[in-house]
From TrEMBL, chain A:
Domain of life according to the entry: Bacteria
Family: Belongs to the binding-protein-dependent transport system permease family.
GO biological process: transmembrane transport
GO annotations of cellular component type: plasma membrane
Subcellular location per the Swiss-Prot or TrEMBL entry: Cell membrane
Domain ABC transmembrane type-1: 87-277
Membrane topology of this protein: Multi-pass membrane protein
Source organism per UniProt: Streptomyces tagetis
The entry's keywords: Cell membrane, Membrane, Transmembrane, Transmembrane helix, Transport
Protein name according to UniProt: Carbohydrate ABC transporter permease
InterPro entries the UniProt entry points to: BP-dep_ABC_trans_perm, MetI-like, MetI-like_sf
Pfam families listed in its UniProt record: BPD_transp_1
TM helices/strands, residue ranges: 24-46, 91-112, 124-143, 155-178, 199-223, 229-248, 255-277
Automatic annotation (TrEMBL), chain B:
Higher taxonomy: Bacteria, Bacillati, Actinomycetota, Actinomycetes, Kitasatosporales
Residue span(s) of domain ABC transmembrane type-1: 89-301
Family: Belongs to the binding-protein-dependent transport system permease family.
Database matches in CDD domains: TM_PBP2 (cd06261)
Gene Ontology BP, a term: transmembrane transport
Alphabetized PANTHER family for the sequence: BLR7065 PROTEIN, INTEGRAL MEMBRANE SUGAR TRANSPORT PROTEIN
InterPro entries: MetI-like (IPR000515), MetI-like_sf (IPR035906)
One term under GO cellular component: plasma membrane
Organism: Streptomyces tagetis
Top-level taxonomic group: Bacteria
Name of the featured protein: Sugar ABC transporter permease
């Protein structure tokens, strides 16, 4: 301890100044890195407000005049397919599957944390292991099933699949949130004669609510983003927003502003949900392993 | 599925005694809330894999359903000898390894930068997360049309603006197809790695680092001897989760190159084998091979998650 203080005292002369310069330089580097990463996105935002002819110039026209034509075009105001059915399908699939996921995951998480069943970690790891299997390997049987039961091009098929896709994440996240609820409070409420629904509603829910909200946002993001199942299982009626975007893959000619507007509008719910759940994002993505 | 054995006294460690009276009714009552989720998962996720396994043993082209017959391991033989399918195995590995490693290194550097206090840190963090919050196909479209396009893409636009007359104008996607897909994926996945690694950095013992600094350890020494060992499991977690997600990648390959020019990875090839070529048996055999590969990855991943998890529970 004495040596440490002595060393610290000896170096206080030069170190802070050197440290400050170094800190400032690293701060600038961090800013530059952030700008490099966000640049393509900013360029996309700018292009979405350019006219098609200004969007497709080389070198790029940075200072071209701004217009909403790209957005008008995307929303089908100038003719062409309207994106609304696809957006509504995506919203339905994402919201309903998120709700179903929560309905299934909440009781499961309760049984794994507050009143743990025997071997609860085994069950938890079973859920996790299903998340690690590649979905593509289940694609064919699911397609054949949908085809034979008339569920092809039906949004409810996607609802069920997205629920299964997100359930492991939801159980893991929710388990860790519910584990933070002190058991003593629950027991005290029960001694006071509160029945289970009351305990859940009045005691557990208020503590776990922020965690439940974050879980819901992450489930929503994953469902909204999903392309492969939607592409294979839907067609005209149940087409989702990412499937709508696939029409741009082979586009030629003047369409850059429109594709930028489309990509941004379709990404907007995810950007909003992601920034709202920023603090819990890591936990969801790492399946609850990192807090 | 291999599971790491759970901590034996988990129930008591977490301070939650299991049912005191081993009453059968009571045991079922505690188990009941778990069952809907469990049954749902088994039906929706496990049954299709069994079906895939069964179909993989059949010679079955959906266009000629009458000629379906048992083929034992013939499909596996074809997957492993068919040059295109074999190439897609190699492509999957190359794509996954490159994307995971590059985004891990970039993510670590960015996490180290963000772990310091500086003006506007929250803004920079938000800017760095943004790429991850773009819908994957939207991001892929952006790279394909807005950045890579040889005539009016931003990259060639910048080259043109800098180089003027005679500036090189590469056709990025045809000249370096795999690199193009990798670049788009690295851009999207670096934020993911950064978030996990930043969480790791922020869980370091600050007193330990302060003590080391007091004892005159240099920044580099602290990084090598304290930070890296602490970060080992977070790095492992990043690698494994990243691999699990990127092995399964479909959107970027589908959008940027449509699987052409040697960029078809296994998910894309499987999709194409049954959706366009209607070879159900062959697609299933390829699917089973992906599952086996993923199981190997998953075993390691579960071990890492479980060691982090055990730390949490015992804390």
């Amino acid at each position: 301890m004495a040596t440490a203080t002595a060393t610290a005292a000896r170096t206080t002369g030069a170190a802070p100044r050197k440290g400050r310069v170094q800190g400032a330089v690293l701060g600038v580097v961090a800013w530059l890195a952030g700008l490099v990463f966000v640049m393509p996105l900013l360029w996309m935002v700018l292009t979405s407000f350019h006219s098609e002819t200004d969007a497709a110039t080389n070198p790029p026209s940075v200072a071209a005049s701004l217009t909403l034509d790209g957005y008008r075009e995307f929303f089908g105001l100038t003719g062409g397919a309207s994106p609304w059915p696809a957006l509504i399908n995506s919203l339905t699939a994402s919201l309903v599957s998120t709700l179903l996921t929560l309905l299934l995951a909440l009781p499961a998480a309760y049984a794994l944390s507050i009143r743990p069943v025997k071997k609860w970690t085994d069950v938890l790891f079973f859920f996790l292991s299903t998340k690690m299997l590649p979905l593509v390997a289940a694609l064919l049987p699911i397609y054949l099933f949908a085809k034979n039961t008339g569920l092809l091009d039906n949004i409810w098929m996607l609802v069920i699949l997205y629920t299964a896709m997100n359930l492991p994440i939801a159980v893991w996240m929710m388990q860790s949130f519910l584990a933070e609820v002190p058991v003593a409070i629950i027991e005290a409420a029960q001694i006071d004669g509160a029945r289970l629904p009351t305990v859940l509603g009045r005691v557990v829910a208020p503590i776990a609510l922020p965690g439940i909200a974050a879980t819901a946002l992450i489930c929503f993001i994953f469902s909204w983003n999903e392309l492969m199942f939607a592409r294979v299982l839907t067609g005209v009626v149940a087409e989702t927003a990412p499937v709508f975007l696939t029409t741009f893959i082979t586009s030629q000619g003047l369409f850059l502003a429109k594709v930028c507007a489309a990509s941004l509008v379709i990404s907007l719910p995810v950007l909003a949900a992601g920034f709202a759940a920023q603090d819990k994002l890591v936990q969801g993505l790492s399946l609850g392993a990192v807090k | 599925m291999t599971l790491t054995s759970p901590p034996r006294a988990a129930a008591t460690v977490s301070g939650r005694p299991a049912a005191r009276r081993p009453n059968r009714m009571r045991a079922w009552a505690t188990r009941a809330p778990l069952l809907p989720a469990l049954i749902f998962m088994i039906i929706v996720t496990q049954l299709p894999f069994v079906a895939t396994l069964v179909i993989s043993f059949f010679d079955w082209n959906a266009l000629y359903p009458d000629q379906r017959r048992f083929a034992a391991f013939a499909n596996y033989g074809e997957v492993l000898t068919n040059p295109e399918l074999r190439k897609s195995v190699g492509t999957t590995i190359l794509l996954t390894v490159t994307v995971v490693l590059v985004s891990l290194v970039l993510g670590l550097l960015l996490a180290l930068l963000l772990d310091r206090r500086f003006r506007g840190r929250a803004v920079v963090r938000t800017m760095l997360i943004a790429p991850f919050l773009l819908v994957p196909i939207a991001a892929a479209l952006m790279w394909k049309h807005l950045l890579f396009n040889p005539e009016y893409g931003l990259f060639n636009g910048i080259l043109n603006a800098i180089g003027g007359e005679g500036a090189i104008q590469p056709d990025w996607i045809s000249e370096m197809p795999l690199l193009a897909v990798e670049a788009a994926l690295i851009w999207q996945w670096t934020p993911f790695m950064m978030l996990i690694l930043l969480a790791g950095l922020q869980s370091r013992d600050s007193e330990l680092i302060e003590a080391a600094r007091m004892d005159g350890a240099s920044g580099w020494q602290i990084f090598v001897h304290i930070t890296l060992p602490h970060m080992r499991r977070y790095l492992e977690l990043g690698v494994l989760l990243g691999s699990i997600y990127i092995v399964q990648n479909f959107d970027a390959v589908f959008t940027i190159t449509s699987g052409g020019l040697g960029t078809a990875n296994l998910p894309y090839t499987i999709y194409q084998t049954f959706y366009q070529a209607h070879e159900n048996g062959l697609a299933s055999a390829a699917g089973v091979i992906v599952v086996i590969g993923s199981l190997i990855l998953a075993t390691f991943a579960l071990r890492v998650v479980s060691s982090l998890f055990r730390e949490e529970v015992s804390r």
